[in-house]
């Protein structure tokens, strides 16, 4: 399936529906099979669906045209066995808008993850990353909008962290990613 269109057309939302559908259909083929998946980590279908919050946190941003605009392209492959059982998946990404990391136009934001980390969802996270509490202190992510109408960055951070958990990222792996984000914010100063 090729999902294409101008910004705001609905590519991201409808891609999510396609993936959720394929995961559901793939899961039906294995409903009676026993799962040996550890508790915190989700099933394969859950993991595939949960790639979205993570990709959106790191690759989507508010633009003047779309509050959740994907700033990269992706090629998603779902693998099925001969019996129709979902067997895996992979995602290629390309053309991430890197300039947004250091500069935002009026009415826009940097990538969601910066604001999620600063949201105070985990009260100790900012301390661990040596970040102060004031987003405005960090030039790289405070040149234009700081919030999005109708979006709670604290809640979104919870959704991102849950997605990492379901996909099987451990605490150290998550912290390493957050450290990279914080490192960029520190570099801007
Ligand atoms: N199927 C849908 N049902 C309801 N609302 C939708 C649907 N598709 C899109 N929208 C609305 O349109 C907005 C923009 O959609 P979406 O983010 O999917 O666009 P896009 O084509 O991926 O844009 P971009 O290229 O900027 O990433 C969504 O936030 C949502 O409000």
TrEMBL record:
It comes from Acrobeloides nanus. GO terms for cellular component: cytoplasm; membrane; myosin complex. Keywords: Actin-binding, ATP-binding, Coiled coil, Motor protein, Myosin, Nucleotide-binding. ATP binds at residues 5-12. This is Myosin motor domain-containing protein. Pfam families: Myosin_head. InterPro entries: Kinesin_motor_dom_sf, Myosin_head_motor_dom-like, P-loop_NTPase. Residues 1-189 form the Myosin motor domain. One of its GO terms (biological process) is actin filament organization. GO terms for molecular function: actin filament binding; ATP binding; microfilament motor activity. Belongs to the TRAFAC class myosin-kinesin ATPase superfamily. Myosin family. The keyword Endoplasmic reticulum does not apply.
